[in-house]
Design brief:
seven-stranded mixed beta sheet; alpha/beta
Length: about 200
């Protein structure tokens, strides 16, 4: 387990168990594997990073997932967050636009025996409409605004966690689908690599 994570207070005890079980080093290249024990971001190639585990844990916990949750992850990256999600959700759908990262993550996840994960190369801005709706959606890249397709794919009482650029800087936001509509709240300031793809690029212009 990454140093210091045992002291983090999480709502979901399943997630605390997942943090103890999932070996972060297995998802990192050999030249940076020694950094796995520290609670900090690590480069994974192709101008991408995997976030510090404490932030990943915070984001997953903020989804407040039921035991039979179906989750969409935007940005597979190394696959570490994907594995944590697979430990606490019934089904995980994960999209990445960078094919070499997706292939590498798929190899690791398969070698670890995960059966409840589906991966797809594609534009995360568009989500995975064929598999919607989702109880939780988590974005691992920053957007200029919340992608409308992802909001449409939230199930009733579902939650979306996303880093979004605001006038005050990038903020991690949580959106809930309620009977009265979508409710948005700011959680904390963050720094993420930008969401890529034609629609995300358009939003930044």
């Amino acid at each position: 387990m990454v140093a210091g994570l045992a002291d983090i207070k999480l709502r979901d005890p399943r997630l605390q168990s997942a943090l103890r079980k999932v070996n972060r080093a297995a998802f990192l290249d050999e030249e940076v594997r020694e950094q796995a024990a520290y609670d900090r971001p690590v480069p994974i190639g192709y101008e991408q990073t995997t976030s510090q585990p404490s932030l990943i844990a915070f984001m997953i916990d903020a989804l407040e997932l039921p035991s039979q949750a179906r989750v969409l992850e935007i940005g597979t990256g190394s696959g570490y967050q994907t594995a944590l999600l697979a430990e606490v959700a019934a089904e995980v759908y994960s999209i990445d636009i960078v094919e070499p990262l997706l292939i590498k993550a798929q190899h690791v996840l398969q070698s670890l025996g995960y059966q409840n994960i589906q991966l797809c190369k594609g534009d995360g801005y568009l989500g995975w409409p064929e598999a919607a709706p989702f109880d939780g959606i988590v974005m691992s890249a920053g957007a200029a605004r919340l992608p409308a397709p992802l909001l449409e794919q939230l199930a009733p009482n579902g939650r979306l966690i996303a880093p979004v650029k605001t006038e005050a800087g990038m903020v991690l936001q949580r959106v809930r689908r309620t009977q009265d509509g979508l409710m948005t709240e700011d959680l904390l300031p963050v720094a993420f690599v930008p969401l890529t793809g034609p629609l995300a690029d358009r939003d930044r212009q």
